[in-house]
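Handout, section B. The chain below has 441 residues.
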Amino acid sequence: MPARPRKNFPLNRLDLFPDTAKIINNSLTIAGHDLALLADKYGTPLYLYDRATLDSAAADYQTALASHYPGPASVTYAGKAFLNLAIAQWTQLHSLFVDCTGEGEISIAVSGGVPRGHILVHGVNKSEADLKSALQNAGTLVVDNIIELTRIKKLITNYQSPPSIWLRLLPGLAVETHHPHTQTGQHGSKFGMTREEILTAADFCREHNLPLNGIHFHQGSNFSDPSPLTEAVAIGLDVAAEIGFAGEWHFCPGGGWGVAYHEDELPQPNIHEYVRVVAESVIKGCKDRALTLPHLHLEPGRSLIARAGVALYRVGAVKRRAEKVWILTDGGMTDNPRRAMYGARYSCLTVSGAGEERCGRVSIAGPYCESGDVLIEDILMPEIEVGELIAVPASGAYQLSMSSNYNGARKPAVLWLEAGQARIIQRREAVADLMRRDEVL
């Protein structure tokens, strides 16, 4: 099989794609599948998930934890990144926890076969329905505020085996991300509780015999420098020591480790370095505070799934103007709102002619009635004509889960790719789906 071509690839754009991506006969393939044939059969926009890349990411995290942390440890999949029945099933092939936000994601996880002990529930303002679902179906409930604790106290007696309770700490420290909207740990954030609120919440748990056994915090999403985690881990362990955790307890310093979305961001952020920094900080911090090593939980977020996903679009129009060349595709901000929301930067390849010389700069946009409906701005590409396919890498996380029906758009089909097999794991929405919840006057 031909080696990956590097001529004309700025830092090798192909490295943004799934592990199995190759250029064969000048066409892009994933897991041995001809992407043009998949697009012809299933239509576009079309999302592809490569199982081999997913499996490799999960194994990398588990290997890194085994190498760097001597105590019990687990990896949590972020349901908010993308969750459906097939993904829920896949998480259990690797014994992952699944982070669910609210009743909807909990229901998907349960229906996908995630056992109670592996369901972990987050949320900053959980409704009564969310809390009831968590108390019935989850093994762990992360509490965001003291008012939530009072609601749990009223409900918990109705459940024979309530979940463990962790308290979410606001450490007052963020990590460096590309946009403020992806930072969560700084002072002024809506998430979590201050040290004083945490200690009050811990007293409330003791007073009312609530099963408190963990601390959680999160500093931001899609970061690539783990060094700010060290100080936040120390703050979290200080609080754990003040609460007086002993024996088996749980500690989650969040996650959100990044991936490269553009060739300028290569090489990919190092998973083992991230895990090493967290593990060594926890080990040293516990020794300094005479704390037993906790069950360590990591929430890798997009770094488990983003690179496994590829979005395919078909070009419907090309506008060549003196000031800019517009490539207009059949998908955009309805299936991927990340650029419109916080300026996310992407790259891409054409499916046919994937190895051809890039000869000019273009901007790639969708069909929707918004000037913000732009997928990629000012990217070097080969000559592109109407009818061609464009493949956008790193599309596996926080795209479909934030998609919408704006302009009556229908959410795309999703395929699961393995060598020799392509399966639909989410069908394309039909026009009838747009009216399924409606009632006439």
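Note. Residues 51-68 form the longest helix (18 residues). Compare this with the example in section A.
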